[in-house]
Design brief:
The complex is a heterodimer of chains A (260) and B (358). Helices cover 64% and strands 3% of the residues of chain A. By secondary structure, chain A is mostly helical. Chain A folds into two domains: 1-47, no CATH class; 54-252, Cytochrome Bc1 Complex, Chain C. Chain B has 358 residues and is mostly helical. Classes of the chains: A mainly alpha (260), B mainly alpha (358). Chains A and B meet through helix 3, strand 1, helix 4, helix 5 and helix 6 of A and helix 6, helix 7, strand 1, helix 8 and helix 10 of B. Strand 1 of chain A pairs antiparallel with strand 1 of chain B.
């Protein structure tokens, strides 16, 4: 009786009422208010089809992808307090994270979370395909989703370089050498040798797409800074924007798909 | 037995086997999608996996911390593929009986409150994911190798695991195809799917019978060309990107004889018994013509077939041709793989002068 009484008393206080403007969600009016009145929950519709809340239908993969993205943002920001993106400090800062932080698992959370996000993104796409959810009226949102998938891979790829160990620079070297082979835009790609005016070479290893990506001809310190900015600022901003579009369109296109 | 599995795992043999298994799975998805099949499959797969892991050579590769996500991915893809076949089999059975898909029953169409139905599911999923991540983070340290050393390249130098399918394609294509053009085609092709597939059926429920072309096409690309190639790139490629069986020790001195021959060399030297012509376009004329025929002549030819006509009637010329071109680009990979294995064919068009090798 005391606990119940206390909970009711808390609900009566001015502080509580100023935060939650509705009563406990045990009737229809309050259940609507709790979702519509909360900035975090208002992404949801107030009511939705039963098939749309079943785990067997959605696998929860889209929602998990978003949650892992948030977890990566938080753990990533924490890592940024310790990490300096220079050839001199980067590797040592990672070592310090491992050796000097008691019970530190932030880097582990961040790295395994990144892998998990790649997996959940792929499986989300797999599920959306299996249920034919890309069909009208959701064609555009499927396209947004594909771009988000590519950006997820790029986020993971740019983050791969930051520990500045052997694994990092050689994996990025393998990847960046592909850019060298871009038709017309990479100096080792088809058509690049045609882009020549007399003796003047238009596409060379000093200005092609690989150079733009790495800010150099090999994976060095400028590449580290470039990948750091891409990883921590640029791509997350684009992803955040597109996630907003993606969620908005899920709602506007009729919510979770169901038979017409 | 281990020798046999090492022998079978070579892509030359395992790729056709995977293709046949894929065909059987899609063709008999109602059998594969039954619960009985799942239990039998688990009874086979679990002991096999344990036996595989018991091998010291395979175990070393398996427990590389960066390979853990692939194992998680494989388990999830395996189960969820079965699960969606299962759901599709049930729905297709119901549709045949005129009942409509499970998702469309009045009971499932009923609207429920977001609070508590969805919010609590999400809360549970968040807690489960968080605990999973924390346990994973405690059990496995994030890998860290020696400090970066630009003068010494590890062997094999592997890309992150999710790009290993692309890296595996480098065996068969030059980087401009494997690393730029084909990935670009994958992205464009994925975005194009809803605009090509105008079949109104199968929107919002699991089905295979009602959209066979979409299902076969997508699943082949996803399961066979993407997931399978990642498995090969991760577990079966060792130093110098040479093939190693799952039970084989990664011996850095393993030598593999490779005599790959260009189509133009076949043509001029072997068949016509003359010297290679000076002009590079004359030299490569056969490959150029074949490639052009593949991309330009083949689509209209398929359009004239009974099946092609039927599809054009449904989706129109434009969509049909885009579909066929994307399909041909996707199939160029398995075609090149088979040509390499059967004839040791290196390039169909070899124009190193222009960096244009196909």
């Amino acid at each position: 009786m005391a606990a119940k009484g206390l909970a009711d008393k808390v609900r009566e206080t001015q502080v509580w009422k100023s935060i939650f403007r509705h009563g406990p969600p045990d009737n229809a009016r309050n259940r609507a208010a709790v979702v519509a009145g909360n900035v975090f929950l208002h992404l949801h519709p107030i009511k939705l089809k039963k098939s749309g809340v079943q785990l067997g239908y959605t696998w929860c993969m889209g929602g998990l992808t978003f949650f892992i993205f948030l977890a990566l943002t938080v753990s990533g920001v924490l890592l940024m307090f310790y990490y300096r993106p220079t050839a001199e400090y980067a590797f040592n800062d990672i070592i310090a994270l491992r050796e000097h932080v008691p019970l530190g698992i932030m880097r582990e959370i961040h790295r395994w979370g990144a892998h998990a996000m790649v997996i959940t993104t792929w499986l989300h796409m797999f599920r959306v395909f299996m249920t034919g959810s890309y069909k009208p009226p959701r064609e555009f949102n499927w396209g947004v989703g594909v771009i988000l998938l590519v950006l997820t891979l790029l986020l993971s790829f740019t983050g791969y370089l930051l520990p500045w160990d052997q694994l990092a620079i050689w994996a990025i070297t393998v990847g960046a050498n592909m850019a060298k082979a871009t038709p017309f835009l990479g100096h080792g790609g088809p058509g690049a040798s045609l882009a020549q005016i007399g003796d003047f070479v238009l596409v060379s290893d000093k200005n092609d797409v690989r150079f733009q990506l790495l800010a150099g001809r090999f994976v060095g310190e400028p590449a580290l800074l470039r990948f750091y900015i891409l990883h921590c600022v640029f791509i997350p901003l684009v992803v955040g924007t597109l996630i907003a579009v993606h969620f908005w369109r899920v709602r506007k296109d009729g919510g979770i798909s169901a038979p017409l | 037995m281990r020798e046999l599995i090492n022998w079978i795992a070579d892509p030359i043999r395992s790729f056709p086997i995977v293709c046949v298994l894929f065909y059987l799975m899609m063709k008999y998805y109602r059998v594969v999608g039954s619960k009985k099949f799942l239990y039998v499959a688990l009874a086979v797969i679990i002991p096999t996996a344990v036996w595989f892991a018991a091998d010291p050579n395979f175990f070393t590769i398996l427990i590389l911390p960066d390979n853990i996500p692939i194992i998680i991915l494989l388990v999830l893809v395996g189960y969820l593929t079965w699960f969606s076949l299962h759901k599709a089999a049930i729905n297709d059975e119901r549709i045949e009986q005129g009942l409509g898909p499970v998702e469309g029953t009045p009971e499932n169409r009923e609207k429920v409150w977001c609070w508590p139905n969805l919010v609590y599911t999400e809360l549970f999923a968040i807690i489960a994911a968080t605990s999973f991540l924390i346990v994973w983070a405690i059990l496995f340290k994030a890998p860290l190798e020696e400090p970066a050393n630009p003068t010494w390249a590890p062997n094999p130098a592997k890309a992150p695991w999710y790009f290993l399918g692309l890296q595996e394609m480098l065996v068969y294509f030059d980087p401009w195809m494997a690393g730029v053009v084909l990935p670009g085609v994958v992205v464009v092709g994925l975005i194009a799917i809803p605009y090509i597939d105008t079949n109104p059926k199968g929107n919002g429920y699991y089905t295979i019978a009602e959209r066979p072309v979409a299902q076969w096409g997508f699943q082949f690309g996803w399961l066979v060309l993407w997931i399978y190639l990642i498995i090969v790139g991760t577990f079966l490629r060792g130093p110098n990107w040479t093939f190693y069986g799952p039970f084989e020790y990664w011996d850095y001195h393993k030598v593999v004889a490779e005599y790959n021959v260009n189509l133009s060399e076949f043509m001029w030297i072997k068949w016509l018994n003359t010297a290679m012509p000076e002009n590079m376009f004359v030299r490569e004329i056969l490959g150029i013509l074949l490639s052009l025929a593949y991309m330009i002549v083949l689509p209209p030819l398929t359009a004239a077939t009974k099946y092609g006509k039927m599809m054009i009637e449904k989706v129109g010329q434009m969509r049909y041709y885009i579909f066929v071109v994307l399909l041909l680009l996707m199939m160029s990979l398995p075609i090149k793989m088979v040509l390499r294995w059967l004839f040791s064919l290196k390039y169909i068009v070899a124009l190193p002068e222009l960096e244009l090798n196909l």
